[in-house]
Design a protein that fits this description.
The complex is a heterodimer of chains A (233) and B (233). Helix content of chain A is 39%, strand content 17%. Chain A has helices spanning 32-39, 62-68, 85-95, 100-113, 129-141, 159-175, 187-193, 211-216, 221-227, and strands at residues 2-3, 6-7, 21-25, 51-52, 55-56, 71-74, 147-151, 179-183, 196-201, 204-210. In chain A, the strands form 3 sheets. A 6-stranded mixed β-sheet of chain A has the order 6-7-8-3-9-10, with helices on both faces. Chain A has a two-stranded antiparallel sheet with strand order 1-2. Classes of the chains: A alpha/beta (233), B mainly alpha (233).
Amino acid sequence: MKSYDREVLNIPALAFERGKIYGIIGPSGAGKTTLLRIINLLTEPDRGTICFDGRPVPPNGPARLALQRQMTLVFQKPLLFSTSVRENIAYGLRTRGYSRAEIKERVAALLEQIGLPHMKERHARTLSGGEAQRVALARAVAFKPKLLLLDEPTANLDPANVELMEKLILQLKQSMEVTIIIVTHNIFQARRLTDETIFLYDGQVVEAGETSKMFKAPRDARTQAFIEGRMVY
Amino acid sequence: MPRLLEGIMEAFTLIIKLDPELMKIVLLSLQVSGAAIIISTLLGIPLGTWLGLKPEKKTALINKVIYTFMGLPPVVAGLVIYLLLSRVGPLGVLGLLYTPTAMIIAQVTLALPIVTGLTLVGVRSRGKEVEETARSLGAGPLLSAWTVVRESRVALLGAVVTGFGRVIAEVGAVMMVGGNIEGHTRVMTTAIVLETRKGNYAYAIGLGLILLTLSFVINTFLYRVQRGGEVNS
């Protein structure tokens, strides 16, 4: 993957197993967000193939849209639409043709889960950063995606909201059969939440494996430096 | 000053008397400018949205052309349409010169670049972000574009208001292609020019005040719609 003639990502192969939480860590400019965007089919790689459920993703057409509808990405600064909290959460359900009753039921359940049932009719733009992030997460999981991509989900939140978001992410893993890929700067968060970790550096996968093992005994010196906070980023 | 007061009195008299000739002129003005702005909106908003979502470097030339045409002098637009529609012109066989249709075509030529250009600017500010959010929630290309339009509605209504302001007040182009024929192509602005030339200042000022009042009523309505969008954004 190139941007402005600079190679931003060069990954020979990378696979994700169903039902696990993956953490992508690495310094700024390592290509973490680009990788997430490629997985979400928002950015087209210059070469290579993306496979979903073992099948290559078609370049365009309804089949690609159908695959895209099985995954979702929550951006670092999530954009909530200029409407109510309820309508925001219902957006993905409406695009998939869910009935009114189903939408009502799911929205109510999710609002309960994220602890904001009283804010159903509130305008989304009036929410605080933490509330907005929780609504964005609820909106993303409302249609039960197979793959949930989170780009720095707690980067702009205070410690109380970070804890709340992490609890929600773990709850989602347990309640839904969903694979979660989290991009994070926060190595402690990666350690707390993820089953597997991928360390990206300068567009390349330096190391990937079980989180506990990687944090205990990193194989590469750069991973070690990053984990120990010696890498400037 | 006495002429201005006379004009105000004349305006009231014309309105109270419901002068049939005046009503015809007002109705034709609204029909021509209304049709022109509706056509410009239907074409300009999709075109501006499409351009606004494309990378700027790919559409730079088109953008520059649109921005240039936003300042197109009405007499130049009128002259070109006149030459196209005149008997010896390439579209002369259609017999449209000196008809309300020719006036609508001239006004669309003036309003379309304004609606397109201002839509483009409005969409460019955060359209890509909205589009990607919609796509990541499973929206196809059409629904994503519609979401962008809905989220940019305040700016888009601004584009329509500006376009309408341009055509309702325009005189050069409609005079050239309409011919200011009494009972057929005479609109408020061309009638004002005629009455001024005849030295009938009071009637001309009266017409001017009615034009301003109508414009105020229509803009009040559009402003309320726009404010509705702002409240929701």
